[in-house]
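so my prof wants the structure for this chain in the tokens format not the other one, which i didnt know existed until like an hour ago. anyway here's the sequence
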Amino acid sequence: MTPEKTELSSAAETGRRARFGKLPDRIRQEDMVEERPATAPDPARDTYSSDEWLARTCL
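here's what i got, hopefully its the right format
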């Protein structure tokens, strides 16, 4: 190898090590997951009706 190529390759290696020489910090599992309900609860829909079973089963 010529001295110019050796200097270029060592400069390139130094640049790579400066940029990629260290792994990024770990990300916690709690920071990667977001939990939220798919739909907003509807209190009018979720109320119990004692007569509802009659309409569903007898009609």
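also thought this was worth mentioning. The longest helix spans residues 3-20.
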